[in-house]
Write the structure tokens for this entry.
Amino acid sequence: MERGFRYLEHTADVYVEAWGPGLSEAFEEAAKAMYNVMTDLSRVEARDEFLVEASGFDKESLLYDWLERLLEIHDVHGYFLCRFRVLEIGKGPDGLRLCGVAWGEQADPVRHEFLTYVKSPTYSLMEIVEGDGRVTLRFVLDI
């Protein structure tokens, strides 16, 4: 099944549509879309690995937390991430939880062009559509 992402029209921020055959794959594509706004992913190497855990009371809040935790890796540690793998999405004590892995490398101004700073994911226009063997996510990134 096809997976990927694209950017939709928005007046001020970045409106993302990401899809995959399942929720995990769609979440992975959403992460790629977010980092692709920040830099050219083809120039980032998967040198270092980060374990990422997220939680939410529903799928939308889980998506928000996943993206926010991935963005923290850039903001706190100065990394660009290029590969993402959702290992598990399941029930947690307070809703849903996600365990995943992300790979990337320390941002290098010589090799990595910094395109756009992403402040945060948002709930604006957020939706998760499941059906016909495909999951589609839509959400806005505040830039």
